[in-house]
Amino acid sequence: MSELAAALLYALAWAVARLPWPLLRLLADGVARLWVATDAREARVARRNLELIRPDLDADGRETLLGEILRTTARQAFETLRLWTRPASRNLLDIAEVHGEALFDAALADPRGLVVAAPHMGNWELLNQWLAMKTPLAILYRAPESAVGEAFLRRVRANAGGQVEQVRAEAAGVRTLLKRLQKGGVVGILPDQQPKAGEGEFAPFFGKQALTMTLFGRLAGRSGARVLFAWCERLPGTSPPRFALRIEAAPEAIGDADPRTAVAALNAAVEAIARRDFAQYQWTYKRYTLRPPGSGEANPYLDLYR
Questions:
Q1: Chunked in runs of 10, what are the mean pLDDT values of the chain (306 residues)?
Q2: Mapped to the 3 state alphabet, what secondary structure does the chain carry?
Q3: pTM for the complete prediction?
């Protein structure tokens, strides 16, 4: 039943994605305005994140930035429908610039394996398709709570080609990733999702302590693999959207044996990437839900639940 529902969702996504991009952009901007007008979850969460990490802005400045973030978020949703329902070979034509490909190719040739850190910056689904074009890889993902959602996600990500193995973020999945790295393979991880309590360490992220996964540092340290950051950022003034794919070396401390040192390096690197274009980062995510033990801080999103 879940497969049938996923197939129907895919058909709907395909139909919407075939609309001309100027119309999709207008629809996305309308969705963003609706989020603000109805005080939707996306607007509430992004506004609270801005209150937490941008005290330098007054209320008007935060609202202006909020509008930009929500427009970017909504446009990305429609972009992603196109990426999920078109051939990957067509999607890759939307990448106008690639920076650091030689660095990536050198890491592929290294027998120690490669870990690709892909922050929630720009469009990470397009990045997945570019990576799959370059090499077989395994990507770690957090399964949706809905069986239909997971079936749909597996269906659309299969569009990247048979070179992508989707691995659940659980103990068995972590072992799968480590084995792949030990054989000189490639794995991709979204490193800026909040882990469960007890599965991370706190480190600053935009000046606010955030629980951060230690898994990334453990994989890098135990495997000895190379670590690179990669993301696809939208180029300004392009319609339909065009992207610059960027690859950078990770700081050595990201695989440090001390997990607190490793997560601090991880967050600093992700923050530097997000600061390139603040609105292209995913600010509709509750990044700061869990607070440091003994801090006396409450979940800053508690009053947003309804």
A1: 85 94 97 97 97 96 97 97 94 97 96 95 95 91 76 76 75 83 92 90 97 91 93 94 97 94 97 97 97 95 85
A2: CHHHHHHHHHHHHHHHHCCCHHHHHHHHHHHHHHHHHCCCHHHHHHHHHHHHHCCCCCHHHHHHHHHHHHHHHHHHHHHHHHHHHCCHHHHHHHEEEEECHHHHHHHHCCCCCEEEECCCEECHHHHHHHHHHHCCEEEEECCCCCHHHHHHHHHHHHHHCCCEEEEECCHHHHHHHHHHHHCCCEEEECCCCCCCCCCEEEEEECCEEEEEECHHHHHHHHHCCEEEEEEEEECCCCCCCCEEEEEEECCHHHHCCCHHHHHHHHHHHHHHHHCCCHHHECCCCCCCCCCCCCCCCCCCCHHHCC
A3: 0.94
